[in-house]
Amino acid sequence: MKNVDSKLNDYMHAWGARSVPFQDQDQALFETEQTRQATERLQQSAALRSVMLLSGDNGVGKSALVARWVQTLEPKAYRPLTITQASLSASGVLCTLLAKLGQVPGYQRAINVSRMEDAIGHLGGVIPVIILDEAQNYTASAMEEVRLLLGLNLPPQPVFCLIMIGDNYLLDSLRLQSRRALYTRIAVSHQLQPLQPTQVEAYLLHRLKQAGLDRPCFEDAAVEMIASASDGVPRTINLIARMAWIEASREQQDKIAPTHVDAALRLVPVARDKIAMPSGR
Fold first, then answer.
1. For the chain, first and last CA: distance in Å?
2. What single DSSP character describes residue 163?
3. 177-178-182 Cα angle (round to 5)
4. Residue 63: Cβ-neighbour burial (10 angstroms; 0-12, 13-18, 19+)
5. DSSP 8-state code for residue 156
6. Phi, psi (5° rounding) for residue 218?
7. What's the CA gap between 99 and 105, in Å, rounded?
8. Which of these CATH numbers, 3.60.10.10, 3.30.420.10, 3.40.50.1580, 3.40.50.300, describes 33-192?
């Protein structure tokens, strides 16, 4: 690992980069019209204490967008309660929320619901914002518990906001009769789309700038290859572009050419799968 880190440091130094390009840590959000719309709807849902579903393909940036939105929330107005463990049981969901509110969970649901009400009451005018990531993986019983918790919103003024983040199939699964009671409570559904081919170059420049590189580093044909191979999914773009950068660095090149992208496509499984698909599919 030490040798690998040393190589990457050499590559960064040769390019004049502050960090390895296209890493996911602490990156500023690439803003588009649809991310602005999503952020606006998240904010409105929080203010109205309503239920929102944010969906999209794997890697399109749903969780990252919500995480950065949460960082902008005014602490005196909102209390985010994010659950990332989609494997929790029904009781686990309730106990996790209580723990995040600083309460000690009990052994009976009735006690925990009562403690939940008390904890929310002690927040005063602060609005709890419950965020369920990877919501498509929640069990039916866990989703039913979420629906039952919405019963706390029966007073004239709802007491919390619920944001569900999931894949494109989540909305359809919530339409099923067994989950329709939760489905009918969704105030707004927003689907986050992949980037358009014309946006990929701007996205690459944005990510390069985050690494301290203020110049175009891709040949035009290389950008086109990445746009096509990634289908505009930011996570896939990052994986391909990072490996292409490493390939170019290994060859002591200061610009990423189609040959480097081609090598990256054969190294990144999700891109390699697309190459391997028979034509016409």
1. 40
2. E
3. 90
4. middle
5. S
6. -115, 135
7. 7
8. 3.40.50.300
Distance CA 17, CA 23 (A): 12
Sign of torsion, CA 177 81 139 163? positive
Tally of residues, the chain:
281
Checking 172-176 for CB contacts under 8 A at 24+ apart, the result is: 173/136, 174/53, 174/143
Give the position of tokens 């929310």: 120
Residue pLDDT, tens place only, 224-244: 999 999 999 999 999 999 999
The pairing of strands 78-83 and 127-132 is parallel
Report the relative pairing of strands 161-166 and 127-132 from DSSP bridges: parallel
Could you confirm whether domain 2-21+195-276 is CATH 1.10.8?
Answer: yes
Q: How many CB atoms lie within 10 A of CB 158?
A: 16
Structure tokens at 37: 């719309």
**pLDDT tens-digit series, residues 139-159:** 989 999 998 888 876 666 788
CA 110 to chain centre: 33
Two tokens at 268? 């990144």
pTM over 0.85: yes
